[in-house]
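Postdoc handover notes: sequence design on the structure in folder B. Input tokens:
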């Protein structure tokens, strides 16, 4: 039997694990000196209250490596094969740590998704199209798709990117004063500014232009992402073409692991490009 494991950086919620056929490893969240397990003893509601009301800046850390090792070894001992789709190595150290534990085990495939949240959902959906494939065939297919998994996202505030070390102080100050909105992408597994526009309206136009430039592979889903409030994500989807609208399979309220770096009221789309 094939087992698919993701971590909470996938933003797949515990209540969704049966739908996607996955096991979810919680990453750790530190809020004001208290340690939580993402999605286990920290609800989205409590997290966003801490973020927006209590103004607490969260920190994230790796999952329990002993727990992951025991879980995977337990499956292998029962004769199962395991695919672990890890949060991008450019955003977390989880991939490298787990890879080293199982690099000599041909029953375990640990993949650096070079993505997060909806990007990982898309890869899970691809695996679920045919779980009877060999582990090598699944790995090959996923590695073919990974370079084409795209993110275009708009943060509501630059504070979390700045405090998380993903934006310079100069960029933070200028953006705040001039109303410059960065469009965030993931390139080679790292969060980068794919463009900068003045005002949200121009930033949204940039996203639509980028989707047309790259082309959208309609064999895969589009995942609408948001943090805290859904309105902006729904507004973005509402102006997509009818062809693209039908590809939207989920509105994902980002898990605390990812929202810690995006901040509240961010929104965007994950999709697979043709190029």
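Designed sequence:
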């Amino acid at each position: 039997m094939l087992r698919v494991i993701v971590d909470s950086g996938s933003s797949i919620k515990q209540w969704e694990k049966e739908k996607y056929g996955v096991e979810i490893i919680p990453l750790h969240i530190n809020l004001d000196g208290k340690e939580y397990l993402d999605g286990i003893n920290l609800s989205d509601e409590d997290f966003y209250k801490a973020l927006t009301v209590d103004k607490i800046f969260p920190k994230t850390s790796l999952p329990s490596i002993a727990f992951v090792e025991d879980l995977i070894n337990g499956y292998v001992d029962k004769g199962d094969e395991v695919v672990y789709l890890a949060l991008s190595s450019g955003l977390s150290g989880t991939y490298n740590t787990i890879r080293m534990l199982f690099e000599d085990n041909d029953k375990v495939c640990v993949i650096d998704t070079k993505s997060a949240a909806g990007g990982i959902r898309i890869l899970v959906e691809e695996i679920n199209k045919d779980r009877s494939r060999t582990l090598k065939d699944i790995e090959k297919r996923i590695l073919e798709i990974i370079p084409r998994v795209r993110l275009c996202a708009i943060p509501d505030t630059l504070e979390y990117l700045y405090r998380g070390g993903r934006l310079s102080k100069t960029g933070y100050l200028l953006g705040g004063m001039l109303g410059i909105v960065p469009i965030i992408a993931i390139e080679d597994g790292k969060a980068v500014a794919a463009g900068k526009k003045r005002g949200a309206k121009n930033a949204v136009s940039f996203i639509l232009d980028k989707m047309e430039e790259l082309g959208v592979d309609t064999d895969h889903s589009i995942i609408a992402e948001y943090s805290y409030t859904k309105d902006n994500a729904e507004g973005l989807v509402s102006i997509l073409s009818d062809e693209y609208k039908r590809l939207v399979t989920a509105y994902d309220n980002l898990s605390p692991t990812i929202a810690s770096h995006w901040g509240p009221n961010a929104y965007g789309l994950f999709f697979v490009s043709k190029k």
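Context for whoever picks this up: Residues 47 and 270 are 23 Å apart (CA to CA). Don't rerun without checking with the PI first.
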